């Protein structure tokens, strides 16, 4: 049996348009298919809690996938899960070369393979992509109050860039302190003025190779700290990251970790997979090989350097 969870509002309403076609394709491969549409945050987790299946397909963006993964984790079920991207950012899909066309994505996944991926855990929730601390979470918070559905519908991925440009002059960086445990068991600390801290399980963040050596199943997360002493640094390090030059700067940190505690003065917002979370302080840890995920078949080092 297959469980298909669809966010009808994903991609500016494209999710609802794809529902019938995706269900029809699944019925060619599974005798029983249950389809559930989400209405609000938390619905995907509730559906997973009450339905059994051999595999779960989530059609939507990183937000509904985040919800589904948390529901799966909370139930303790070991059901393979897959993402059919119909969102705006599609960070997870782009890192795993999942086609952005929903029907092509489904067909690719049906002939794919199951891999056990690491998860991060923070604020009592798990995340599959990234914990963001600082500026990106600030942008997420602002977008939630500024007619985000309309902005995303007409601008797509550019909606995030437009919002970032609009709000960068209003955001003030913080004094960041990070204490982390490294994969070899040693500890390390960093303290500096920073505008963005990321803890990521993937190499590519919104089209930027922010942690190019990150692997989603290596039992570690990657900490990235982007410093700032002026608002010009927002643009400077964003450009350096886009070009892959940021790691050459002596104040930039890109470090594999297993656990970290992050504080800031003043406190700043955080986000998990693009979903707004509590302000700092925040503790984050890796859960190795926690989640069975159905993915396209890929070469062994497919993800590196994306």
Protein model, in words:
The protein has 306 residues and is of the alpha+beta class. The chain folds into 2 domains: 2-111, Rossmann fold; 127-289, Tumour Suppressor Smad4 (Sandwich), CATH 2.60.200.40. The chain contains 9 helices and 15 strands. The chain has helices at 10-27, 43-50, 62-75, 91-95, 102-110, 135-143, 148-155, 158-167, 232-243, and strands at residues 2-6, 33-37, 55-60, 81-85, 113-122, 125-127, 130-134, 174-181, 187-200, 221-227, 253-257, 259-265, 270-272, 275-277, 282-295. Strands 5, 6, 7, 8, 9, 10, 11, 12, 13, 14 and 15 form an 11-stranded antiparallel sheet that branches. β8 (174-181) and β9 (187-200) form a beta hairpin. α1 (10-27) crosses α5. Mean pLDDT is 87; it is low at 301-306.
